[in-house]
Design a protein that fits this description.
Elements: E1 2-6, H1 14-26, E2 30-35, H2 38-50, E3 54-61, E4 64-70
Length: 71
Amino acid sequence: MTKTIDARGLSCPQPVLMFLEAVKSAGDTEFEVLVDTEASKENVSRAAESQNCKVTHIRETGDEYHLTIVK
């Protein structure tokens, strides 16, 4: 099951904190994180790696980024 985290419109560190909280409570799952800045994309990607998660896909749609992350 994929858990979606919609962090569009939020500035860092909020997207990172939302992702980290979801990882703690969700266990092993797949996440789709939606952000709308390059900085948020990079920061969430680094946070995922720090939690032993893997960013498997990044899709850019206009001004938005959709990150697929697997724990």
